[in-house]
Amino acid sequence: MPEPGYILAAVLISSAVTWALRAAPFALLAPIRHSSVLPYLNDHMPVGIMTILVFYTVRHTPMSLTPGSVAVAAGFAVTAGLHLWRGNAVVSVLGGTAAHVALASTLAAIA
Length: 111
Prior knowledge:
Layout: H1 4-29, H2 37-58, H3 67-86, H4 89-110
Helix pairs in contact: 3-4
């Protein structure tokens, strides 16, 4: 069993590291809050993140006509349609996810 001093030191060091890692983004963001970088990131990051999510989602999807690929394609179509129609990312993602889950569950139950 480790000594109590060793355990206390480990807890204090891990607490300090955790606190520093949680505070770092706020400390690093303060200097660029009024620069031109933040509006640029605000405009371009959502597209980049959605692109990464799309590639992550389809990386293991077969390109043949399977129930899984049909559900993924339908989810993408619903997401794109809702986004073009409403322009709201939350509604688009939730609607596309709901369509994908409903279709994937239905096709899996039939097959």
